[in-house]
Each structure stands twice: as C-alpha cells, then as structure tokens.
Specification:
211 residues, 8-stranded mixed beta sheet, L-fuculose-1-phosphate Aldolase, alpha+beta
Length: 211
C-alpha cells in the first residue's frame, strides 16, 4: 500500500474503533510501520473518531517528526515494539473498559494475567504479560515494553491499557477486539468454576496457528 493509503487505513480503523466504543475522547493511538522503518502514528490530543489523513504524524525510527501534526506522546513505545518485533507492522493501543479494568486489579502472575478461556484468545492474543505502571509519557515505559515485546503480540500496561501488534492494522484491530472481549468474559465468569483450555489444547493451537 502507498503511504497515502495507509494514512486512510488509520483514519478508517480509528473511526471504527471509536464507533464501537473501544476508544473515547482523545485516548489511545494507532500506528503503522512503513517499509523504511518510519511509522505513521495518530497525532497527540486527537480523537480516533475524527482523524484526518494529512494530519497523521510520520515519525522516523529515531523518533523525529517527519510530517503531519506532532505525534502521540506514546509514539516512543510503538517504536520500541517495532524494534523488538520484526513481524509487527501495526499497533493498537486503546483504553477500552474491560481491558483497562483488568490492568487495575492485582494479579498473582504478572507474566500472564488472563486465563486460557477460548481458542480465539490463544490464537489472536496469546499470553498477556502485565507491564509495571509508569505515568503516560514516561520514557522508562519504552524500556519496560521493549523487554516484553519480542515474545508477545499483546501486553497490558498496569493501570493504563493494552498494546497489541499485528501483521497489518486490520490484524492488530481484530486481535485487540479479541482481547477486550476476553477481558469481558473474564469478569462475567467471575469466581465461578471455569473449564479452561488444557496445556495440550494450547500447544495444538500454537502449532496450528503460529503467531
């Protein structure tokens, strides 16, 4: 796709996520990696429901603004994911209700904060580690994200929300939606006895649908 087409992709999926109630106000950001390593990322203080293609920020791999409006203050952790995960071509980071709620509760195992409830969760999200809390815009968050990005398609920022990467923006969006729906299921089942996927089932899924 051309850069102009990819800008329009960000606008299209931003509007879709906003319309579905997964984004609100000016929270959250989307990005796409270009062939030269630069990224297109949503501008700072912009609503995903009303983006404009020409205003989408273009940022160099070093974090310098190349075109468009000033980028999201969280563009630096997008760059960290891209550096550590060569297969990632796009990233979705939103503050969706159930995933953020999951990020706010205490977890016994920060290496994986969602039990294996469904096959599509394992296929699209996989293990979901919790990244320690850092204030929005803190550059130390990039290093914390970098340590986990290579081995995980998705991660959860404590008291903040998820970061999900994909082979395209559509892939990342679909995986993000699966994560949000799984978080919703997690709260719906609550403390009831749950039939979780077995280790054998998870291995079979990972072999049939490698990430």
């Amino acid at each position: 796709m051309t850069e102009d087409t990819l800008r329009c992709e960000i606008v299209k999926f931003g509007a879709l996520l906003y319309a579905r109630g997964l984004a609100h106000g000016s929270a959250g950001n989307l990005s796409i990696r270009l062939d030269d390593g630069a990224i297109l990322v949503t501008p700072t203080n912009s609503s995903l429901g009303s983006l404009t293609p020409v205003k989408i920020s273009k940022v160099s791999p070093a974090g310098d603004l190349l075109a468009g409006n000033p980028p999201s203050k969280e563009a630096f952790f997008h760059l960290a994911v891209y550096e550590e995960r060569p297969s990632a071509k796009a990233i979705v980071h939103l503050h969706s209700t159930h995933a953020v709620a999951l990020s706010c509760i205490c977890h016994d195992d920060s290496a994986n904060v969602l039990p294996p409830l469904t096959a599509y969760q394992m296929m699209r999200v996989g293990r979901l580690p919790l990244v320690p809390y850092y204030r929005p815009g803190d550059r130390k968050l990039a290093e914390a994200v970098r340590r986990l990005a290579g081995g995980h398609k998705a991660m959860l920022l404590a008291n903040h929300g998820p970061i999900v990467s994909g082979t395209s923006l559509q892939d990342a969006v679909h995986s993000f939606e699966e994560l949000e729906e799984t978080a919703k299921l997690f709260f719906l089942v609550g403390n009831r006895p749950v039939s979780l996927l077995t280790c054998e089932a998870i291995v079979e899924l990972s072999e049939a649908f490698p990430s």
